[in-house]
Amino acid sequence: MYNSAFRVSLLFFSALMIRAPAQTAPSGAIAGIVLDAGSNSPLRRAVVTLSTVEAQPQDAVAWTDSNGRFSFGYLAPGRYMLRGMKNGYQGVNYGADSVRRPPAVIRLAAGEVRNAHVLSATGAGSEPISAILWPASGDPGFQQNIGMISQSPSTTNVPPGRYYACGFAVAQPWNLMQSSALRTALESRCEAVDAPEGGSARVQVTPISSADLKEVIEKIDQ
What we know:
- By secondary structure, the chain is of the alpha+beta class.
- It has 2 domains: 28-121, Sandwich (Immunoglobulin-like); 128-221, no CATH class.
- Helix content is 17%, strand content 39%.
- The protein contains 3 helices and 15 strands.
- Strands 2, 3, 5, 6 and 7 form a 5-stranded antiparallel sheet that branches. Strands 9, 10, 12, 13 and 15 form a 5-stranded mixed sheet that branches. A 3-stranded mixed sheet has the order 4-1-8, with no helix packed on it.
- Strand 5 and strand 6 form a beta hairpin.
- The protein starts with a helix and ends with a helix.
C-alpha cells in the first residue's frame, strides 16, 4: 500500500516538474546621456526612442532629465536601437555618423545593464558642408569651392554675374563637378546667385544628400 502511494506521489511530482514554466530571464537596462555636439553640455528634455530589432519593432520613449540622462529598464534580452531628437537640433542615431544611416545595434544579455550610451546632437543648420559655385553661362573654366555651414549664409568674392550654388553632404566633390552634364542635371536643385559689381556673392544653400547625388549621377550614366 505504501509503495503504491509513493509511486503515485512520485508520478504526480514528476508531472508538475515537466509542466512548470521555464524561469523568466532577469531583465536588463539601457541608459545614457544626450549631449550638445558643439559644447558637450547635456541636453534637457530631449526625446530618446528605444526600438527592438525584429520584424515588427516595438518602441519605448523616454525624455532626458536636467543632466541630459535617460534610462530604459525592465528590458528582455535581445537587440535594440537608440534614436534621439530635440527641437533646434538634427536627429541623432546612436553609433551612426549621420542621421541618414541606421543606428548601431545594441545587444543586451539577460540581466545586463548598459549605461554608457552617448548621443551627440548637432544643432540644426550647423553641419559643415562642401559648396560649389559655377557660372550660369556654363563656362567650364571657372569653379569656386566654398567650405561653409549648412543653412548659414557665406560670402565669397567672384567676378560679377549669375552663378549656380550647390551644397553637398559628401566631402570635396570638386572633381565630380568638372562634368558639364552633372552641372546641368543639378541646376534645378541649386540656388541661383547674383554677384554684383565688386564681385561679392552671398551664398546660402541646403546640401544635396549623398544618396540624391548618386541617383543623379546614375541617371546621367544610363
